[in-house]
Design goal:
The structure holds two protein chains of two kinds.
Chain A lengths: L1 E6 L2 E6 L6 H8 L18 E4 L2 E4 L12 E3 L12 H8 L9 H16 L18 H7 L10 H10 L14
Parallel strand pairs in A: 1-5
Antiparallel strand pairs in A: 1-2, 3-4, 3-5
Helix pairs in contact in A: 2-5
Chain B lengths: L1 E6 L24 H5 L15 E7 L5 E6 L9 E5 L22 E2 L5 E7 L2 H10 L1 E6 L24 H7 L2 E9 L11 E7 L2 E6 L4 H12 L6 E4 L15 H13 L3 E4 L2 H7 L6 E9 L5 E12 L13 H4 L4 E10 L13 H19 L3 H7 L11 E2 L4 H12 L11 E2 L2 E13 L5 E7 L5 E4 L9 H13 L6 E4 L16 H24 L7 E3 L2 E4 L2 E4 H4 L4 E9 L2 H4 E2 L1 E13 L5 E11 L6 H20 L30 E6 L23 H13 L10 H4 L5
Parallel strand pairs in B: 1-25, 2-12, 10-11, 14-15, 16-26, 20-21, 28-29
Antiparallel strand pairs in B: 2-6, 3-5, 3-7, 4-6, 8-13, 9-10, 9-12, 13-14, 17-18, 18-27, 19-20, 19-25, 22-23, 23-24, 27-28
Helix pairs in contact in B: 8-16, 11-12, 15-16
The chains are: A alpha+beta, B alpha+beta.
The complex binds FE2/S2 (inorganic) cluster (2 copies).
The site of one FE2/S2 (inorganic) cluster has 12 residues of chain A, from loops.
GO molecular function (chain B): iron ion binding; oxidoreductase activity
Pfam family, one (chain B): MoCoBD_1
Protein name (chain B): Xanthine dehydrogenase YagR molybdenum-binding subunit
């Protein structure tokens, strides 16, 4: 099937088998291997990407469902010589070890900042209607869909906290 | 030239004399920018002209024989072939260097790889594999559960003294049974192989930890000469033991690529990883401690029961640390390995200690409770002077410092009597456990090149599986050669480069690091000659050499690059000293008084592992250990169907590795130490030490919180709730 995706700002036409996931379109057809495959079942978060601004697991969605959609993958954030604030914070804080979950963590955090800005509550929010606190517990809860077997969670949280403002978080920070 | 050192004698602390100051300090990983932008390529992400895709087919029965019915799928779109030739039963064991069992048409466990299906695309191959008809003949004598084992094999471990007598002489005794469930490494990158043939020569991108050994394993499995195999693994998405040995995807890809005359890529599914790759065996452990009135051990015993497939050269060394951690004249060990029709058992991070230290350190906590002695004091009283079984002296061993300094930093003095601290519906408690991990030096080689422009290159087939190899090898070379680490390039993960120790057993940093140290040391000697000074007087800093009365930039001393090979081998210090890393883990947990749910509020690890090569990457390794400790204590358990051995929870939704919210505040401190016996860089392994005992600190904290002793791991709420006060 012929579909058009806007990937990292550029229109990409692909002719694909309808069984192809959004993740596999990136990895196998568009040479964008930054999005990782850890499980192919929506269980690990390694394939997290933004679709029309919202974070999703690319492995759980068929590409043909996204004709005309705007996709941002890790390759759309920064280059090795020109890192985005969040990417630089991951390097600074050792927010990884093997690096395999890392693109997913970073894309997930991007999506999460936006969810804070929109006032979405989470499982650990005390008040579902109040503006959520950008607290460590909120970050941990909202990032718990992204597994890191290297267990770099302390560095991941630190990177996310450190670069929040530069990444456009407008939600107030928790009074520690 | 090769600078060779057999570690027969303690070596001087050269790295404390060099003045660049770039070693030990925290330094972000040089490959970090590639990782955070998704540009670091892992095995499945390479491409080859005309590449086809393979998918593994797993056995759907537990025991018997099979034949694939190729005709059932030949007409499907994209079909290229189904291959069963040379199929290996499971991944190789670490450092095996030979083929894993190749079974022909025989099946010994459910989930065994039996074929690889190859098609033009992944989608096609996946669907063909799903409908491929396989004819099975089932045997009815499979044994899949400990309870079905009629004859446990005897143990051949010798007794020391008489433990039974010690138990009856003792003032305080502990005699407890512990059980642990099987564990999966669950590295985030599934194993993958891209195989490409050029005539007789095979090039394979793999997800592997120990390329030198893996090359022999691939060659032996295929029946070809290892000289014709080149393996590449510059980036590996985690290993934790699961990639020590060559995995079945390597053979599947190579066989199919050869038959089809085109490159083939095979990526294991997550389910495949849970079945075809080695798991940590389940264990039953009987722990016995006999102590006098002061809590001094008169004897101890640790016997274990575990399982594997036939002919696997690996048993979980459950009692590894128990042999040397605490004193006591009378000692008994026992190891009973049953043959079960379940996936193969093998190394998962910290084989031995990861489960053995749970039981030992829980038993020590029981002894502390019975004797009324503080758990830290009890451990301090039982630190032996010499190895209690061999009489050999210890090398650097900062166990006491780790326990006492860790206790101070953690606020151990605020710990209360078990079951007495409550906050709302939560019981709060603290626990401690010792950490110990045998230190090993392995033969390793690396080339170090210094260029006249003040840049350097390090080359070895060593891997970086997240462990920080790129960072620390660059730092060692930079420190030795007086360079900014940014000027050092490190090339890894290619069997065309000098053969290293590989990543495993926590030996990689010290072994590969020593080879780089030696190569750089040889370069220093050359530079000293050219400068006209003794090598002892040579100072290299920021690209300038100083010595005697001379001071010259490197460019003036060199008109061509200098390359030296460093080659380290273990030697006599291995016999003369017992070497291990030591430490102490502390945990504070909250146990819900209504549900039995456990939350780890905070943990502290005080670690002593010789020279720390990079405080940042070492800290990350210990974080990893602490969090794996949380997993082993609270959530991780493979459930085998007792009738079929099937890994019921063979994915990441049902096998629960810790997630971000499971982890409280983590603190890591290092005890400053040099281990002279370990290596010329005085460093020891840290990655597995961080896990050793970590889970026991959590379960000991559970006891202190609510008075419930965990004997069956993991401590899920159902194991705590019924026993709550
Ligand atoms: S690969 Fe998509 S969630 Fe794991
Ligand atoms: S960095 Fe290895 S899994 Fe997260």
């Amino acid at each position: 099937m012929q579909i058009t995706l806007t990937v990292n700002g550029a229109a990409r036409e692909v002719d694909i088998d309808p069984r192809t996931t959004l993740l596999d379109v990136m990895r196998h057809h568009l040479d964008l291997t930054g999005s990782k495959k850890g499980c192919d079942h929506g269980q690990c978060g390694a394939c997290t990407m933004l679709v029309n601004g919202r974070r999703i697991n690319g492995c759980l969605s068929l590409a043909v469902m996204h004709d005309g959609d705007e996709i941002t993958t890790i390759e759309g954030l920064g280059d090795p010589g020109n890192l985005s604030p969040l990417q630089a914070a991951f390097v600074r804080n050792d927010g990884y070890q093997c690096g395999y979950c890392t693109p997913g963590q970073i894309m997930s955090a991007k999506g999460m900042y936006d969810e804070f800005n929109k006032g979405w509550p989470s499982h650990v929010s005390d008040d579902l209607t109040a503006e959520p606190n950008f607290s460590t517990a909120e970050i941990k809860e909202r990032m718990s869909g992204n597994l890191c077997r290297c267990s770099a969670y302390p560095g991941i949280c630190k990177a996310i906290e450190e670069s929040a403002e530069e990444e456009g978080l407008t939600t107030r920070k928790a009074a520690e | 030239m090769t600078e060779h050192l057999k570690m027969d004698q303690v070596q001087p602390h050269l790295l404390d004399e060099t003045g660049q100051g770039v070693l030990s300090v925290p330094m972000p990983r040089p490959e970090g920018p590639l990782k955070v932008t998704g540009r670091a390529p892992y095995a499945a992400e390479y491409k080859a002209e005309g590449m086809a895709t393979g998918v593994m087919v797993r056995a759907a029965i537990t025991k018997g024989t099979y034949a694939v019915d190729t005709a059932s799928v030949e007409d499907m779109p994209g079909y290229l072939g189904v291959f069963t030739d040379k199929m290996v039963r499971n991944a190789a064991q670490g450092t095996m260097g030979t083929n894993p069992a190749q079974m022909g048409d025989k099946i010994l466990y459910l989930g065994q790889p039996i074929a690889v299906v190859v098609a033009e695309t992944f989608e096609q191959a996946r669907d063909i594999a799903a409908v491929l008809k396989v004819d099975y003949t089932e045997d009815d004598d499979a044994v899949c559960d400990f309870d079905g084992v009629s004859d446990w094999p005897d143990s051949d471990k010798p007794d020391q003294g008489d433990l039974d007598q010690a138990m009856s002489d003792a003032t305080f005794t502990v005699d407890s049974m512990y059980t642990t469930k099987p564990h999966n490494s669950a590295a985030m990158e599934p194993h993958a192989a891209l195989a490409e043939w050029d005539g007789d020569k095979l090039t394979l991108h793999g997800s592997l930890q120990m390329l030198g050994y893996n090359r022999d394993e691939v060659a032996d499995s295929l029946g070809i000469d290892a000289k014709n195999v080149r393996l590449l693994a510059p980036y590996v998405g985690g290993g934790f033991g699961s990639k020590l040995g060559m995995s079945p995807d390597c053979v599947g890809a190579a066989v199919a690529a050869k038959a089809l005359g085109r490159p083939v890529r095979v990526v294991l599914s997550r389910n495949n990883v849970f079945e075809m790759i080695v798991l940590r065996t389940a264990t039953r452990q009987r722990l016995r401690l006999a102590a006098d009135k002061d809590g001094k051990l008169l004897g101890l015993g640790q016997e274990n029961w575990q399982s594997n497939l036939p002919d696997e050269p690996m048993a979980e060394p459950v009692d590894l640390a128990t042999h040397f951690l605490y004193g006591g004249e009378n000692r008994r060990y026992g190891q009973h390995v049953a043959i079960l029709n379940r996936p193969a058992s093998g190394s998962v991070r910290a084989p031995g200690e990861a489960v053995g230290m749970l039981a030992l350190e829980n038993a020590m906590d029981e002894l502390a409770e019975k004797s009324g002695i503080d758990p830290i004091e009890l451990r301090l009283r039982n630190i032996p002077e010499k190895h209690p079984e061999t009489g050999v002296q210890y090398s650097a061993r900062s166990l006491a410092e780790a326990l006492t300094e860790g206790a101070k930093a953690f606020g151990w003095d605020k710990r209360q009597k078990a079951g007495t601290r409550r906050e709302g519906e939560w019981y709060i408690g603290m626990g401690v456990a010792s950490a110990a991990r045998t230190n090993i030096l392995m033969e390793s080689r690396a080339n170090v090149t210094l260029n006249p422009d003040g840049t350097a290159l390090v080359q070895t087939d060593m891997t970086d599986i997240g462990t920080g190899t790129y960072a620390i090898l660059g730092q060692i070379a930079a420190e030795m050669l007086g360079l900014d680490p940014q000027k050092v390039t490190v090339e890894l993960g290619d069997t065309d480069l000098p053969k290293s120790s590989g990543s495993g057993g926590s030996w990689g940093a010290a072994s590969a690091g020593s080879s780089v140290f030696l190569g750089a040391k040889a370069i220093r000697r050359k530079l000293a000659e050219r400068l006209g000074c003794d090598v002892e007087a040579l100072r290299l800093q920021d690209g300038v050499a100083t010595g005697g009365n001379n001071r010259r930039p490197l460019a003036e001393l060199m008109d061509a690059p200098i390359t030296e090979e460093g080659h380290i081998e273990p030697g006599q210090t291995d016999e003369d000293f017992h070497q291990a890393g030591y430490g102490a883990h502390f945990a504070e947990v909250a146990v819900n008084a209504v549900t039995g749910e456990v939350r780890v509020r905070r943990m502290l690890a005080a670690m002593a592992a010789g020279r720390i090569l990079n405080h940042q990457t070492a800290t990350s390794q210990v974080w990893g250990g602490q969090i794996w400790g949380i997993g082993t204590a609270l959530t991780e358990a493979i459930e085998h169907d007792p009738r079929t051995g099937h890994v019921v929870n063979n994915d990441l939704a049902e096998y629960h590795v810790p997630v971000n919210l499971d982890v409280g505040d983590l603190e890591v401190m290092f005890i400053d130490e040099r281990d002279d016996a370990s290596s010329p860089i005085q460093a020891k392994g840290i990655g597995e030490l961080g896990l050793s005992g970590a889970g026991a600190a959590v379960t000991n904290a559970i006891y202190n919180a609510c008075g419930v002793r965990v004997y069956d791991y993991p401590a899920t709420p159902d194991r705590i709730f019924p026993h709550l006060p």
